[in-house]
Amino acid sequence: MLWQLGLKQRYFKKILMAVAFFSLAVRRRAKPLLLVSLLFRPSFHQPFNISLQTFYSFHSSATSPSFFSPSQTHLQKYQISPLESSPNYDTSDFEVDGEETCNPNEPGLDGFLETLKQTKQLPSEGDATAFLEESGVRPTRGLVYSAIWALRHEWELALLAFRWGERWGCQSADVWNLMIWVLGKHRSFRTAWSLIRDMHRFSLSTRRALLIMISRYAAANNPSKAIRTFHAMDRFKIIPDTEAFFILLRALCKHGNIEEAEEFMLINRKVFPLETEGFNIILNGWCNISVDVVEAKRVWRGMSNNCVTPNATSYTCMISCFSKDGNLFDSLRLYDEMKKRGWIPGLEVYNSLINVLTRENCLKEALHVIDKIKETGLRPDSSTYNAIILPLCEAHKLVEARNVWANMVREGLKPTITTYHAFIGGMNVEGTLEMLSQMREAHCGPNSHTYLLVLNKFFKLGQPGNALKMWLEIEKYELLPDSAHYAALIQGLAACGWLMKAREFYAEMRSRGFLDDPELEKLLREPLVGNKCHKGGPLQNGNEDIRIPCTKGHIRGRKVFRPMKR
């Protein structure tokens, strides 16, 4: 026993020396070539059962906050992940399969849509119904479904198409579910619930409809009602099974309500025992949605404390989180540990390593990893090259980014919308317009997220005029702005002092049928003039610049000035 203890101590000293060497390299910001060699060396197992907790505790004291030791947790602001994630398919989301199930060439669709749009001028629903009767339109199930999808941004017309199909008995469960999804997207939850009750009365399955409501409540930042909907499944004779439980957790995490999802999972541990998949959903939320390393480490420790064994997905999430945080040391360390435990790294793991290597100015090593991917039998895809292009564009290294783009095309891979978005983030107005044109020629967007990205970029640069130019481009590309676009535009204009323009667009938003937004109304409230304050900010009001008393406020993380309340 003594000789085994002495051998373990000598082995442990070697580990400490290696850790000290790594820590010194990190502190001096040297290129971590020694760490990168972990990618190419063969895996081996530890000869002794040395406590990993002891090892990581020592490393943390020398270089970074402890990976396993308790620390204060904090919730970071939601940010868009630079890496493409692969969320689990959710049957409650029509964004995934709406285009595939809809037939844009449905016979009579164009005429039906034109007839429906003509009813907007009529004063009542009864008049609209009479107009449809006189039009001679005879709907089919496919026609009604395609019309609702085409009118998904105008829920009132979509509902009229649904009601018209109901009169002719041209409805299926898919039509009901799509209509409920459209209503949920526009937060018309009361109307959506009335349709669900009708489905139950007609003996149609309401399972998918209820899952849609859970997802839409989560998207509307109302986690409590999403949870109440889950509990209400019993009333519609639907068993809230494990699949529905995970869909709820995934929906909450997807829209930033990760704390609520974790709390709900722990509270219901007697009904739904804690398992790896549930923890992975929470871990994915902290790693890829919120990108909060501290919280991710805490959940990782919680898995161990609850005797839940991490799997390949768990390691993939953690490596992705460290990659986004720019932590090359821990990314490579977990990659090595993952292989030691017998898990085979997938393409997403290698993409994360490529991303963090590029961020740490190790472009040559990142390109070597692509060769490593091919050696393992995997095939690099567009997301692999995007993992290099994104950080290069963020660092304004557009020449290197274009070279990587050329390599991607030579490999027979097509640029994705993420590739175009990366370049748009670092371009001026002319370059942005050119990239939008290329996207359309390649039949790769632009989509609604493209314009949100462009609007936020120009407002961040303090260029509201260019943001308005981009707003006009939305109509050229036949994209209807939704509530998120209007919110970004109005908040950005107000933050830049263009209150008159912001009010005009808020009035336009309301005229298009979008619900009132109390936060926007508060932001656009008439400023109070006449009081004095130590700090003031210029505010554009028409053609005049006036100074008003103000206090600090925030719009999406950016400091702005708001009028003081009397």
TrEMBL record:
Repeat in keyword set: yes
Keywords for the protein's UniProt record, in alphabetical order: Repeat
Residue spans of the PPR repeats: 311-345, 346-380, 381-415, 482-516
Entry annotated with the keyword Repeat: yes
Top-level taxon in the UniProt lineage: Eukaryota
Gene3D superfamilies on file: Tetratricopeptide repeat domain (1.25.40.10)
PANTHER family: MEMBRANE-ASSOCIATED SALT-INDUCIBLE PROTEIN-LIKE (PTHR47939), PENTACOTRIPEPTIDE-REPEAT REGION OF PRORP DOMAIN-CONTAINING PROTEIN (PTHR47939:SF5)
Record family assignment: Belongs to the PPR family. P subfamily.
Protein name: Pentatricopeptide repeat-containing protein At1g80880, mitochondrial
